[in-house]
Amino acid sequence: MELAGGQSGKRSDAGIAEGEDVVGCTVCDAVYRLPRGMADQSTQCARCGHKLSFGTNTALAWVVSLSATNVVLLFLVVFLPFLELRSGQFGSEASVIDVILGFSSGIMVPLALAVLAFILMLPLSRFVLLIYALGPIALGTTNLPNAARALRWAFALKPWAMAEIFMVGVAVALVKLADLATLAIGPAFWIFALLVVLNALQDTLMCRHTLWTALTCNG
Amino acid sequence: MQRVITARDTGRVICRSCGLVASIGQDRCPRCSARLQSRDTQSQQKVWAWWLVGLIAFIPANLYPMLRTTQNFRTEDSTIIGGVVDLIDHQAYAVAIIVFVASIVIPVGKFIVIAYLAVLTGRAHRTDPHRLLVLHEVVEFIGRWSMIDVFVVAILTALVQFDVLATINPGIAAVCFALSVVFTMLAAQSFDSRQIWDRLEESAHHG
Questions:
Q1: Roughly what angle, to the nearest 10 degrees, separates helices A163-177 and A187-205?
Q2: Rounded to whole angstroms, how far apart are CA atoms B11 and A12?
Q3: Whole-prediction pTM
Q4: ipTM for the complex?
Q5: How far is B110 from chain A (nearest CA, A)?
Q6: How far apart are CA A18 and CA B26, in angstroms?
């Protein structure tokens, strides 16, 4: 990897052609020429240390299949019981949907919608967008219309999908309730935990440079 | 240190969404159609605006009750701090620390760090840009975790509905707190990290 524009540091356009071998650092605005042979290696921005490429060329199929798995798991989570609470003869069972509906009265409706979005809708949208954008590449067919837009949104939604934070919230809630009642953990809890792990694995495989290059090359 | 070539130097602009190096003057990225801007000239204003609404929402979030617990016909309100104190009473120290860090330390720290970054990038500074960048990345990464408390309230509300015996309902502070988290996340995202490095080069030029 070398600095685009050469060692002289002239303010010139020399040698930079628009194309896949020029990489820009989105954090600090530095431009590099990345030889094609280095596309499968891990490279860092020399100035700010931002990872330009993780070097995971085989990741694409993984990202697609993990997304598909996660969509299925999310549907299971919604319909299976999440937590169960028993206190004497009283018992209550809550699915993730109940958690969201717990808020839904009067002024709390916007909050219920926000929680619905953060823990279900946004993670789901991310997976669907990734399948839409990258699925055709994995299957070897041509890109679907607006695939680039879909991939951009999948990246943009990342900070707003908060499934893993919800799991920590569940752990805190369990401790708070521990001496009030007996708690039973439902199947949806474990499926959701698995989903968080798979999601984390997927995020480590998501190299922007590789995915975008694959999308562009697929035409 | 060798001078790094920036996209702006070569009359180009890097798409902040997909990293494509496009020529300047284009409105949208030819690859992913994100809006292209070499430098976000309004980023300072946006950061301060989101920061301020976030701070405004944070005040009622701490003053008003987060949870309303009704047990044996008695209703008790508990604020964020009250919840932490309850956890300490129950000897759940680890969880008390998690809640305290997520709902007090992280939000307050975020307000301070974002203000610090915004003030410094607004003028020429001598601070090491690597340190500023690390601060920015930490703020962006950690901000979402403040949502823990809101999710806890949601779960408790859903589970504890035993009519007269015990019920838990969310208080108005839950809404304010969620808004405060969202606004500070937007403040951190409005920040244009490229400007941290611009100031470095400007000061290098002037000696």
A1: 150
A2: 9
A3: 0.85
A4: 0.84
A5: 16
A6: 13
